Amino acid sequence: EDKVVQSPLSLVVHEGDTVTLNCSYEVTNFRSLLWYKQEKKAPTFLFMLTSSGIEKKSGRLSSILDKKELSSILNITATQTGDSAIYLCAVERYGDDKIIFGKGTRLHILP
Amino acid sequence: GAGVSQSPSNKVTEKGKDVELRCDPISGHTALYWYRQSLGQGLEFLIYFQGNSAPDKSGLPSDRFSAERTGGSVSTLTIQRTQQEDSAVYLCASSLRLAGVGDTQYFGPGTRLTVL
């Protein structure tokens, strides 16, 4: 059965720290891996990583896809209280275009 | 149940037909969300239900889309007079209450809708 596993489940750090969130997957017919930030209501899209784009960066956030290890990391540097959220990882697969979500990492940034 | 379930898993329909998509949330979850995701795109919020409050329909793309939630549990998303641009994966999620930092949304497996 296809699955996406995120770790840690929760994380508390102080403002200014750097955090690394992990996502591993076992998904047949992998198409892409997506990262979302969930605060209120709808998750906000952060990055999409594919075989042709294994590293993305936007401001203090960056993400890398390791297709050999079937995993991805999301890095946040110089964290701010506004980074507090649940970060979701999801994998799209070919064929039926289904998306499998992980359970998320709950990140809390202390001032 | 063990998780959020959706049915059907796949639906192929002809342009102009109506479709109904079903979501069974996790038992006890008061908040229910519908999203859709087109290939390679981010999640598009459609509608959410929170307990007995009036649903937030701000994300519905047109009046052809409607949703209801009966008895605070099962939800049905209806698309009338389907168009080809409606083709997407429709995802349902539920959470214990209105999503915030401390509240995880649990996603179902999605329904892949193809409009020919």
Mean pLDDT of chain B: 87
Tally of contiguous helical segments of chain B: 0
How are helices and strands ordered from N to C of chain A? EEEEEEEEEEE
Largest sheet of chain B: 6 strands, mixed
Question: What is the helix tally of chain A?
Answer: 0
Mean pLDDT score of chain A: 90
Terminal Cα span of chain B:
34 Å
Taking all Cα atoms into account, the compactness measure Rg of chain A is: 14 Å
Structural class of chain A: mainly beta
Describe this structure in words.
The complex is a heterodimer of chains A (111) and B (116). With 111 residues, chain A is mainly β. Chain A has strands at 3-7, 10-14, 19-26, 30-38, 44-49, 55-58, 61-66, 71-76, 85-93, 99-101, 105-110. In chain A, the strands form two sheets. In chain A, strands 2, 4, 5, 9, 10 and 11 form a six-stranded mixed β-sheet that branches. The mean pLDDT of chain A is 90. Chain B is an all-beta fold and 116 residues long. In chain B, strands 2, 4, 5, 8, 9 and 10 form a six-stranded mixed β-sheet that branches. Chain B has a four-stranded antiparallel β-sheet with strand order 1-3-7-6, with no helix packed on it. Chains A and B meet through strand 4, strand 5, strand 9 and strand 10 of A and strand 4 and strand 9 of B.
Which keywords apply here?
A: 111 residues, mainly beta, five-stranded antiparallel sheet, globular, B: 116 residues, six-stranded mixed sheet, four-stranded antiparallel sheet, 10 strands, 0% helix
